[in-house]
Structures are given as structure tokens and as C-alpha cells.
Amino acid sequence: MWKHLGEQTIRLESPPTILAASSTVGPKEGQGPLASYFDVILEDVLWGEDTWEKAETKILKETIQRVITKADLTTDQIQYIFAGDLLNQIVATSFAMREFKVPFFGLYGACSTMGESMALASIMIDGGYADYVVAATSSHFCSAEKQFRSPLQLGVQRSLTATWTVTGSGAVVLSKEGLGPYVTHITPGKVIDLGVKDSMNLGATMAPAAADTIINHLLDTNREPDYYDLIITGDLGVIGKQLVLEMAQEYHYDLSKNYTDCGVEIFDPTTQDTHAGGSGCACAAVTLTGYILKEMEKGTFEKVLFIPTGALLSPLSTQQGESVPGVAHAVAIETNLE
Fold it and tell me: Do residues 218 and 159 both lie within one domain?
């Protein structure tokens, strides 16, 4: 059977198992509606370090080490690590990798990085190139605000369309063998840019890419939305989520019954004042490794389409008046192989 379906989807002939998952979150995330699902909730955002960037490195490093332990493996058994973050030159991840001595693929997909890392790690296993691979990512509210918006010390008022970057990290170990859940299909996303320039409204910039990936995944696989128990994007927030619903409806796909967004689920907007919702690489990553996979283990969900979303901007591109392109990568996760 062909591994390539339709325009852009990959069917994994030997679907890898998600052998273990781990999540670490900051104190704000630990006060949200998904708190009970996370492995570790930090008491403060510095976690004993003297900078936010060093704290993010520690968060990612500890999360990866924990997921390897949860998989009942040693670091020596991990053949590759795919990971990245939001900081310039993905330094939080690169510095964390100093501790592991494992071949490393550094990725930048902005907040879509968990989808990208899982997709590439799955291809590596399906192709027979590895038995155990780690896919991971991280983000930190304070370091992201400092780089992409305004340093917190300035006390700049946040726009109502702005989202709150999740502090945390999520990691999975993908294995050649196991009893599931399995990564069965991947739909890598295209870069979509409709000309939105507002870096304080990233949900709107990413929604077209998310809708494009979802629609093409359904077309490529000849599936309807109700094939999945849950379709969940990465960090569009309430504004981007509504736009995806409207865009999908234009193609006669009704997502209203089983679609949500990690940025909508991770915070309580009423009590936590997060405006449009959550964002950041860790938003999708910890929602997957905490909430989604644990609910799959319980049997609540059997088929999930997970679509981390990314806004491809930098401080430099914003200063030059560039628009903000978006990208979204879909990963189909299923508890049973048909």
C-alpha cells in the first residue's frame, strides 16, 4: 500500500506506539482546569534558576529525563531526540541536549513544534531507522514575552486578542513496538499567510493554516470529522477556534461536535485573566501529554486528530512590517489498528 495519501498525508505502515508521555507546567497552568493531569507543577517560574531562559532549559531537560524513565528505558537506548522551542536559535533545547549525549535534531516550528517533532520521529521509526525516539518541546511565558512582545518589567497592557504563553514542557517516547496508542497518519502543514500583521492576535494568523491542514487531512484520508472522537488544534485560543469552525464550514465540514483547541482548554479565562487563551509550544505539548493521552488510556477517546499550530514570526520580521505566516501539522493518534 502507498504510504503517501492524496496531497500531503503520510500513512504510517508500521505505526509507532506512544510508549510514555510526560508533562511539566508552571504555577499558572497548575491552577487551570487541566491541573490534575500534569506530572509536575512548579511552585515558581524560575525553578531555582537565575534566569527564565535557564529555567526553560531545566524544564525541558527534566521532562525528557522523566519520560525516558517512565518508558522504563535508559538514555543509552534512545537513538534520536527531536525537539525545539521558541527562543532565538532554540537555545533552551540545545543547552538541554548537552546532558543527554543523544543524536539531536533541533526543530523550529514555532508553537507547532510538538506536531513537527512527533511527525519526524514517527517517520524515523516507521522507516526502520530507530527503535526508540523522543519528541519534545517547551515554552516559557516570561522568556516568550521578553522576546516577542514586551519585557514584563514594562507592565505593558495586553490586548484582549492576545494569548498567554504556557510555561512548561511535554515529551513522548515513540517506540517501534507496543500496544498503543499509535501514530497512524501525519499531515504536514503548508505555510499559509493571509496578510495578518497583528502579532497580538496570533489566533487569527494561524487559523487559516490549521483549517487548511484539517481539510486536507480529511480529503486525503477520505474521512469525515466524526471519524475522530476529538479534533484539537494547538493554540489558536477562542478567536482562532471560531475562525477554524467558519473556514471548515465553507468546505462543508461541520467540526462543531468534536473540535476544540488546547489554548481554550488549558486556562479558565474567567478566573485566570488569560484573554484569548493559551499559546506557546508547551500549550499543545502538555495538553497532549497530560490530558489527551491520559483520557485515551481511560478509553474516553479512541481516535484523536492532534494539530499543533505555529505563528512564524520573529522580533525582526515584526519590526520590518512583515505579516505573520502560519503553519499546522496534524498527527492522527489511535488506540487500535484496524
Answer: no
Rounded Cα distance between 181 and 220, Å, is 22
Q: Which three cell numbers stand for residue 202?
A: 496570533
**Residue 233: CATH number of its domain:** 3.40.47.40
Q: How far is residue 33 CA from its own chain's centroid?
A: 18
3-state secondary structure of 99: helix
Count structural domains, the chain: 2
18 plus 158 within the same structural domain: yes
Torsion-angle region of 20 (φ positive above 0: left; ψ -120 to 50: alpha; else: beta): beta
For residue range 121-166, list pLDDT tens digits in order: 999 999 999 999 999 999 998 887 766 666 655 555 566 667 779 9
334: left (phi over 0), alpha (psi -120 to 50) or beta: beta
Nearest of 289, 298, 294 to residue 67 by alpha carbon = 289
Contact by Cβ (8 Å): 82, 135 = yes
Single residue among 175, 193, 217 that ends a domain in this structure: 175
199 shares a domain with 91 = no
- Is the Cα torsion angle 64, 69, 72, 74 positive or negative in sign? positive
The domain of 228 spans 182-334
Contact 18, 10 (CB under 8 A): no
User: Is this prediction's pTM over 0.85?
Assistant: yes
DSSP 33-79: TTGGG-SEE-SSSSTT-SSHHHHHHHHHHHHHHHHHHHTT--GGG--
